[in-house]
Amino acid sequence: MRIPCPHCGARDAQEFSYLGAADPQRPDGLDATEAAMLDYVYQRDNPAGRHRELWYHGAGCHAWLTVTRDTRTHAIESIEPVRRRGAGAAA
Amino acid sequence: MRYSVFSLLAQALKGHKGWTPAWRDAAPKPEYDVVIIGGGGHGLATAHYLASRHGVANVAVVEKGHIGSGNVGRNTTIIRSNYLLPGNTPFYEHSLKLWEGLEQDVNYNAMVSQRGVVNLYHSDAQRDAYARRGNAMRLAGVDAELLDREQVRSLLPFLDYETGRFPIQGGLLQKRGGSVRHDAVAWGYARAADSRGVDIVQNCEVTGLSVENGRIAGVETTRGPIRARKVGLAVAGNSSRLAAMAGMRLPIESHVLQAFVSEGLKPLIDCVVTYGAGHFYISQSDKGGLVFGGDIDGYNSYAQRGNLPVIEDVMESAMALWPGLGRVRMLRHWGGVMDMSMDGSPIIDRTPVEGLYLNAGWCYGGFKATPASGFCFAHLIARDEPHPVAAAFRLDRFTTGRVIDEKGAGAQPNLH
């Protein structure tokens, strides 16, 4: 599998580390309910098909990337650098 | 027909013309007491134990392909119970005990072979960790022996002991571990369940779950609707997809795990060996092929096929452990889709939908767990309460924080 890094071009998947689904958003710590933390830390959609996920290009540009990939074929639909969230928010 | 040496002799005299199919290829009836989704090892074992231990025989096992075409035919056939944590050890030991009596129980030769499992250690810290694990196992009534380097060398003289970076210092041996012929496990459970009246419905894919007033009412399938009072999900690899049909999200990601077989060789290695300085394990099948595997590919996948980096990593580990393998040719490899749970341990529990039960999250360890998984799932479905040895495998442990994390890797499925 090759990943088309927006900064470095198409590179071998070995250069990247995988984190997981891109969609979970960390709830605001002290006010978060147990259910909200459960959703963020553990529950996943885990779709067979289109999946938005986070990869880190550790052997290249050191950028975090949001990749949209089909989990049935490994075909990559789109890739873009992760956008910085508000100050204090965890990545 | 009961299989025995006498039935074999009688058939031999008749030219083997009297053998009958081992199970019926049933058409679905409109209604059952219990429908088990998934005709793999766990689903078929559940049906067998429901019928034989709980007298619940009005059961259908529905399978989207043919039985045994999923992960029960895609593993490396290893059985063992060398676990550390209290939530796991009694369960896997129960499984190993069921393996020991399986062939008599189901009257089918599954070639259960207790040839021993050795986990190698390569540093003082790893020896201490294995000593701790071995002690935990012995406290739970499981056999374990800590071997030093010379004891391992007498068992496995052909490994590379002097490699500079990761010299083999010894190993943790479980003599009762070993391997089983995996296809025969599916066939044996299918035949035993069928003989008690369970319907095995193949080529019948579930397309929806019918829920009425918070209670399960049946399943929609490609062969029509089937009503049921209780439904059990045993579809590891696809658990999230099936659970989504009932509006549930699970603490699971699906990942692909590859395995490999070499060309057939004369008897070469008589136990199962795991490498301690990388993720690699190897044994030899009764046909002579070396069976080995390593890590999952590490990203969500439903593809049943993997990529080259893991193949390279597995081969490098093989060469580091056993340089003689360099002249062996690899015959074939394949990928299976695993339910990787968020703590690396399985789930056998009720769900928020009344009458819908979940058996999921088996990670790397589904095959060895087959008998106990079926045994405990049948107990849960029949009595509506967990079996004591599977009581820790709760779905709500992710809410309460009582996770069972053997590796201490946290909520990161590709690290378990």
Description:
The complex is a heterodimer of chains A (about 90) and B (about 425). Chain A is mainly beta and about 90 residues long. Chain A has a single domain (about 1-80), classed as Folate-binding fold. In chain A, about 10% of the residues lie in helices and about 35% in strands. Chain A has one helix spanning about 35-40, and strands at about 1-5, 10, 15-20, 50-55, 65-70, 75-80. In chain A, the strands form 2 sheets. A 4-stranded antiparallel beta sheet of chain A has the order 3-4-5-6, with no helix packed on it. In chain A, strands 1-2 form a two-stranded antiparallel ribbon. Chain A starts with a strand and ends in a 10-residue tail after the last strand. Chain B is α/β, with parallel strands linked by helices. Helices cover about 30% and strands about 25% of the residues of chain B. Chain B contains 10 helices and 18 strands. In chain B, strands 1, 2, 8, 9, 10, 11, 17 and 18 form an 8-stranded mixed beta sheet that branches. An 8-stranded mixed beta sheet of chain B has the order 5-6-4-13-14-15-12-16. A two-stranded antiparallel ribbon of chain B has the order 3-7. In chain B, strand 1, helix 2 (about 40-55) and strand 2 (about 60) form a beta-alpha-beta unit. In chain B, helix 2 (about 40-55) packs across helix 9. The longest helix of chain B has 18 residues, at about 90-105. Chains A and B meet through strand 3 and helix 1 of A and helix 7, strand 12 and strand 15 of B.
